[in-house]
Amino acid sequence: MPDVEHPPDGRWPLRAAGVLVAVNVAWVTTGLFHVWTRPLAGWIALPVTTLLAGYACWRLADHPTLDAATRRFWRQLTLACGLFTAATLSNAVDALGSGTPSQRLGPITLALYLAVLGLALWALLRLPPWQRTRADWIRFGLDACMVLVTVAALVWHFSIRNHDDWATETGSGGAMLAILVLTWLSVATFVKVAFAGAGCLDRRALHALAAGTAISAVVGALAPLLISRPYLSTSMVAAPVAAFGIHLAAVRQRQADPLAAAPRRPSPRVSLLPYLAVAAAAAVLLATGTTDPVETTIMQVVTVTLTLVVVARQVLALRDNNRLLATVEYQATHDGLTGIANRALLERHLDGLLAAQRRFHLVLLDVDDFKTVNDRLGHSVGDALLTVLSTRLTDVVGGHGLVARLGGDEFAIAVPEDADGAPDVEALVARVLAATREPVEVAEQTVLSGTSIGLATSRTGDDPPELLRRADVAMYAAKAAGGGRRHWFDPALDRAADETAHLSADLRRALAQEEMLVLFQPIVDLRTEATVGAEVLVRWQHPERGLVSPDVFVPLAERNGVIVELGYWVLEHACRHAAAWQVRYGDRAPTKISINVSARQLAQPDFVERVEKVVRETTVDARALVLEVTETAVFSTDVAIPQLTALRKLGLKVALDDFGTGHSSLSLLIDCPVDVLKVDKSFVSGPTADGAGAIITRNLIGFVNDFGIEAVAEGIETRVQAAWLRRAGYRLGQGYLFGCPMPAADLERRFAPPKED
C-alpha cells in the first residue's frame, strides 16, 4: 500500500502536555510535605492540557482518509474536551473562589464532569461494532450494572463513609461518588472495547484512552486522603492525565494506517467480570462484620444485587451458548451455499438407515457442463444455478428422502423404501431429470442445464463410502453415455472401471513404448479434388488389445492428464512431416496441416512457448500449420484467446472445430481469432443433413465468407453431398469420400511429383 502523506503529527503539543502532567504530579507530591501558599499554580495545567487534547482531536476529525464513523468519534471527543476545559475552570473557581483554598465541587462542575464522561461513552458506543443485537446491549447493560454497583460500594466503603469532614469540605460526598462511579464505568467500557475493537479506530488509540481514564479514576478515588490539605486536589493530576490519554490516542490514530480496520479479537468464552464483582463485594461484606448494622445491611443488599445481576448475565450467556451450539451444529451439517444437507449429514443419515436395516436407494447427481457455466458466465451465476437446482430437488423429493450437496456441482438423494416398496424411485428420478432440464433465469441470463444421475441400492454389509462409490460409478456411466440421463449400478460397471484403470495405466507408458502413431486424413479442394492438406490424427496400437479407438483413449487421456504430452508429441511429429514435405515438394507441398489442440493443452501457461520451440526446431514454415480448437476448449480457460492470438503472431492459423454444435458459436467468430471454420459432420452427413442441417450449412457459408474465414466441410461421404456443398459455395472438404486416415507415405502419393533438384 502506498504511504499516506500525513500533516504534522502534533508531537510537540503532546510533549508539552506530558511535561505539564509531570509538573502537576510533582506539585501534588511536594504538597504532601509542603504547604503551598499559592495553589493557583496547580490549576493552570488543567485547562491547558484539555485544550491541547481538544486541538489534537479537532485536527484529526477532518482527516480525509478516516471513515465517517471514526471522524464523528473524534469530533465528539473534541466537544468532550471543550466541556472538559470548562469543567476544570469551574473546578478551579470552586476551589479558589471563596478566598480560602478548598476542595469544594459545585453543581456546575459536577454537571460538566458528568457530561464529559457521558459524551465520551456515547461517542465510543456509537462506533460500528456496537451496532449489535439486543442481546449484546443487554449483556453490556448487565456488565455496566455490575461495575456501577461494585465501584459504588467499594468507593463508599473505603473512601467516603468515614470522611464526614471531607463531605462537608467538598459540599457533597455524593457528587464525588457519582463522578468516580461513572469514571470507573468509562474505564470498564474503554477496556472492553479496546479488546473487542471498534470500527476503524486504532487499537493503540483505544488502549491510550482506557489507560488515561483508568489512571484518572484511581487518582480520583484518593480524594478523601487529601482532606487535610485543602490547597491540593486530585483533579490536579486526574484531569491532566485523562487529557493526556485523549491527546496520546489522537496521535496514535494519526500514525496508524487510516485505511485498515483494527482486527477484532474474539470475545473470551468466559467473562471474569461477574465473578470479580461478586468476589469484591463478598470480601467487603466479610470485612464489614456486624459492628455497624447499617453498613452490613448495605453490603448485603449490594452482594444480593450483584448475585442477581450475575445470575441474569450467566443465564443470558447460557442461552447464547446454546444458540451458538445450534448454529455451529447447523453449519457443520448443512451446505453453506444452498442450505441443504452436506456430506457429513448425508453420511450420518445413511449410517442410520443402514443400522435400521432399511432398504433404500442412493441417487447421485452431477450437473452437466457446469464448468462451462462458471467459466463463461462467472462463479456468481454458477452459485445461483446450484441454489436454484437445490430448491427444485428439494421440492421434487419432498418428504420422500434427504437431499444433500456433496460439494462442487454434485448432489445426492437418499430415498428410503416403505414396506410396500414406495416411493417409485424410477418415477422420482424422472421428475428430477425433468426439473433439472428446465431453464434457469439468473442475472438476466438464461442458463440451460441437465444432470447425469447414478443410482445404487443398499445391500447388507454396506457402509456410506461404498454406497457413494457405486452411485458415483453409475453416474459416470450416465455421463459417458452423453449426460442428461440416469444409470443404475451393476457389477459390470465395476469391471469396466477396473478395465479403464488398467487402460489408463497402459496409456501413461504408451508414448515411451512407441505405441502411438500418427495418421493423416486428406483435406481436398472440392472443385478439383486435389489434396491441399490433411488433418493429423493419432492412433494407439496397444500390444495386447490391438488398435484402440480414439473415442476410448482420448477421453481417458483428458482425465489422467496424458493428453498434454500426447498433444505435444503429435505436434512435433506433424511439424517434422510438414517440414520434410516443404523441402521435398516446395510450393506443391500441402498448405494446411491441421493439428488438434485439447483444452488442457491450451490452458498450459507455457503452451505458446512450447509450440514456438517445436516450430523453430523442426524448421517448418508455420504458415502451413493450422491448430484446431473446440468451442469448449476456448471457453474452459481465460487464457485461451490470448494464447491463440499469440500463436497467430507466430504465423500459425487457428481453426474452430465442430462448429455449430455449441451454444455460442456465432459469438466466437467475433471474440476468437479464427482463420478456418470446420463445419461439423452432423450437418453434412448426419440425420438432419437433408433438413435443418442443410439450411444451417447453406447459411453458414454466407456470413463465414463475409468474415473472411475459410470453411471446411467435414464428414463428406457421398458424391451427392460433395456436389451440393460445392454448389453452396464450399471450396474445401474432408471425409471418407476422399480418404480415410492414412500413414504419411500414403498421403504423399496424392501430392504432385517431388520438385527436381
From TrEMBL:
Residue ranges of the GGDEF domain? Answer: 358-491
Domain of life according to the entry: Bacteria
* Residue intervals of the EAL domain: 500-755
Which PROSITE patterns does the record associate with it? EAL, GGDEF
Q: What are the protein's UniProt keywords?
A: Membrane, Transmembrane, Transmembrane helix
NCBIfam families, per database record: GGDEF
Q: What is this protein called?
A: EAL domain-containing protein
